[in-house]
Structures are given as C-alpha cells and as structure tokens.
C-alpha cells in the first residue's frame, strides 16, 4: 500500500526566512510519481510540481526547489526567502505508475504560516 | 496550465434534498476525473474515480447510491449528493487527468463547499 507522511503539521516562519517542508513516502511500485500541491485559504489546489521515480534531478523554480532522494524515499520542498503569500497548506502526494486510474495518495499536509 | 472548473462554489441546502456538483475541464479532455472530500484541516480523501462512458469506481466505504457520479462527456463529470444530511457537509473537490498527454498530473477544481442544514 502507498503512504505519504508529512510529519510537520504546522510551520511558522518570518518573511524572508527559508523553509523546508518534508515529505516521506512508501510504495512497492518501481515506477511512481510524486507531486506537491499548494492549497491557499480559498481552497483550490494549485499544482506545483510532478516528478517521476526515474528522475532524481533536483528542480528549482524561482524561490521553490525540490530535493528528491530515492535512497531515503523523500521528496522535500524548500521555499527560499518566504513571503506572506506563501501561507497555505502544502500537500505532498504519490501516484502509482501510468494507467487510467492513477490514484493520488495525499499526505496530511503542512500548514505554513509566513508572518511579517 | 490545465483549467478545471467546479460549480457551484458554495451551496447551502436543507436536509433531505439532493445537490448536484459539476466538474468541467475547460481546455483539455479528461477521460478520468476524480472526486475528493476534505473535512476542515484534514487531507483529501478520494471518494471515487469517474471514467467517461462507464461506471464510476468508488473507494471503500463510500456509498455509491448516496454519491451518484456521472461522466457523460470528456469534459464534464457530475457528483450528486442524494438526500443530503448534515454529516455530508464538507468541501468537495474534483480533479481531472489530461487525456491528451502522458503526464500523470491531476489538475484540481476550486472546490465546492456544501453545508447541509
């Protein structure tokens, strides 16, 4: 069975601080996909990144960066120089290999609060 | 990026009535759509997988007669909460998988907040 663990329930930082959100996953599949979504107070889920299990390259997109470590089954997300607008709940998710029913297994989410 | 809409965004209804929620993929075709439920400060729980032209697949513990799903076209799936009760009050959110690519990405709608009085 698949499982995603986000051990950090809530994180509070001051603007301009860097923050890392942890994600650890479990799966028996050799091919899988990892995702991060942002859920601001309005409720919609915003897609941030998708990474497949064969691509261990880290990725940077502006202030966001992701560290995929297959050896430790982790897919951590770092926000550099955080801003108030980054305040949201962030979900890490895992899906099995390609197919017509690629279900997403979500972690419990990490609530990030960025204050001035 | 792909856009998914949901309607209505918020609905208040009386206990015993039925409520229909629409999920549309606006700029892509989606053979598969997913319906999730989210309680306050909790994660998303998959309710069912909706496949165009066939019956939906429900997760364990989800009553298919209570939550009717219809996926009549490649851009529209509907969730009907039948005979709603206060315990059905929740945030319902759909997602759609882009049929036109091999990308395994689900794009989410803005969600529907249901309050049953």
Short description:
The complex is a heterodimer of chains A (116) and B (117). Chain A is an all-beta fold.
Mean pLDDT of chain A: 92
Largest interface: A-B, 24 and 27 residues
Mean pLDDT of chain B: 91
Total DSSP helices of chain A: 0
Structure commentary:
- The complex is a heterodimer of chains A (116) and B (117).
- By secondary structure, chain A is mainly β.
- Chain A is built from no helices and twelve strands.
- In chain A, the strands form three sheets. In chain A, strands 2, 5, 6, 10, 11 and 12 form a six-stranded mixed beta sheet that branches.
- In chain A, strand 5 (33-39) and strand 6 form a beta hairpin.
- Chain A is globular.
- Chain A starts with a strand and ends with a strand.
- The mean pLDDT of chain A is 92.
- Chain B is mainly beta and 117 residues long.
- In chain B, the strands form two sheets. In chain B, strands 2, 4, 5, 6, 9, 10 and 11 form a seven-stranded mixed beta sheet that branches. Chain B has a four-stranded antiparallel beta sheet with strand order 1-3-8-7, with no helix packed on it.
- In chain B, a hairpin with a 5-residue loop joins strand 4 and strand 5 (44-51).
- In chain B, 37% of the residues are buried.
- At the A-B interface, strand 5 and strand 6 of A face strand 5, strand 9 and strand 10 of B.
How are the secondary structure elements laid out?
The complex is a heterodimer of chains A (116) and B (117).
Chain A: E1 3-5, E2 10-14, E3 19-21, E4 24-26, E5 33-39, E6 46-52, E7 59-61, E8 64-69, E9 74-79, E10 88-95, E11 104-106, E12 110-115
Chain B: E1 4-7, E2 10-13, E3 19-25, E4 32-38, E5 44-51, E6 57-58, E7 67-73, E8 76-81, E9 90-97, E10 106-108, E11 112-116
Parallel strand pairs in B: 2-11
Antiparallel strand pairs in B: 1-3, 3-8, 4-5, 4-9, 5-6, 7-8, 9-10, 9-11
């Amino acid at each position: 069975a698949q499982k995603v663990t986000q051990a950090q329930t809530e994180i509070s930082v001051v603007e301009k601080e860097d923050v890392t959100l942890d994600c650890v996953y479990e799966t028996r599949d050799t091919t899988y996909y990892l995702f991060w979504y942002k859920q601001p107070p309005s409720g919609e889920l915003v897609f941030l990144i998708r990474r497949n299990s064969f691509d261990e390259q880290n990725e940077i997109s502006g202030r966001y960066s992701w560290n995929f470590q297959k050896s430790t089954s982790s897919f951590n997300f770092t926000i550099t120089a955080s801003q108030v607008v980054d305040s949201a709940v962030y979900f890490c998710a895992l899906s099995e290999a390609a197919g017509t029913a690629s279900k997403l297994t979500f972690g419990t989410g990490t609530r990030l609060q960025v204050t001035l | 990026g792909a856009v998914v809409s949901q309607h209505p965004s918020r609905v208040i209804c009386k206990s015993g009535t039925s409520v229909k929620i629409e999920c549309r993929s606006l700029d892509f075709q989606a053979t598969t759509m997913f319906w999730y439920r989210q309680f306050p400060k909790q994660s998303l729980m998959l309710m069912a997988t909706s496949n165009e032209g066939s019956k939906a697949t429900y997760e364990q513990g989800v009553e298919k007669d209570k939550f009717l799903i219809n996926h009549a076209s490649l851009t529209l799936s509907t969730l009907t909460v039948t005979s709603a009760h206060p315990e059905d009050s929740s945030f319902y959110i759909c997602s759609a998988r882009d049929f036109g690519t091999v990308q395994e990405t689900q794009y989410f709608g803005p969600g529907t907040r249901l309050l049953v009085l």
